[in-house]
Design brief:
heterodimer; A: mainly beta; six-stranded mixed β-sheet; four-stranded antiparallel β-sheet; B: mainly beta; seven-stranded mixed β-sheet
């Protein structure tokens, strides 16, 4: 069975500082991994995804993530935080079973960016 | 890009009434749509998977008679909360999977805030 663990329910950084949001997964099949961002009272927006191929994935808004199979990790990073990055971030793994392709979400990490 | 809409964005209803939420894929065909529920400051909880032309598959613990799902076309799925109670108040989010899309890839709607008084 698939599962996702996001370490740190809250992360606070200064504007301009490195952002690191941690995600570890478990999967019985080769994982497809996703990072989503959610702003208050809105749906989820896809930041980036890993399916196959290059393990360093670049997404929107300057975010990137690296798939490390040996560490079962898919941490999200951004070199320099902006105030507009403050939001909730969810890591997800695709449930490879059946044909429905369900997503298994982590508990989320709330990112705060202070001046 | 793939866009998913939800209607309404907010709804307030009285206890005991039913509420219908629509989820539409605007520029692609979605054979599969998903309905999630999100409580404040929590993650998304999958309620059911909706397939066009067939019965929805509900997750364990979700009452199928209370949360009626209809996926009548490749672009529309509806969630009806029947005999709503205050504990049904929540943020409901749908997502859609494009036919032939990459495994797991889903496009999310903006959500519907349901308040039952």
């Amino acid at each position: 069975a698939q599962s996702v663990t996001q370490l740190g329910s809250h992360v606070s950084v200064s504007e301009g500082a490195l952002v690191l949001l941690r995600c570890n997964y478990s999967s019985s099949v080769p994982p497809y991994l996703f990072w989503y961002v959610q702003y208050p009272n809105q749906g989820l927006q896809l930041l980036l995804k890993y399916t196959t191929g290059a393990t360093l994935v670049k997404g929107i808004n300057g975010f990137e993530a690296e798939f490390k199979k040996s560490e079962t990790s898919f941490h999200l990073t951004k070199p320099s935080a902006h105030m507009s990055d403050a939001a909730e971030y969810f890591c997800a793994v695709s449930d490879g079973s059946g044909g429905y392709n369900k997503l298994i979400f982590g508990a989320g990490t709330r990112l705060a960016v202070h001046p | 890009g793939a866009v998913v809409s939800q209607h309404p964005s907010r709804v307030i209803c009285k206890s005991g009434t039913s509420v219908k939420i629509e989820c539409r894929s605007l520029d692609f065909q979605a054979t599969t749509m998903f309905w999630y529920r999100q409580f404040p400051k929590q993650s998304l909880m999958l309620m059911a998977t909706s397939n066009e032309g067939s019965k929805a598959t509900y997750e364990q613990g979700v009452e199928k008679d209370k949360f009626l799902i209809n996926h009548a076309s490749l672009t529309l799925s509806t969630l009806t909360v029947t005999s709503a109670h205050p504990e049904d108040s929540s943020f409901y989010i749908c997502s859609a999977r494009e036919s032939g899309g990459a495994r797991g890839e889903q496009y999310f709607g903006p959500g519907t805030r349901l308040t039952v008084t």
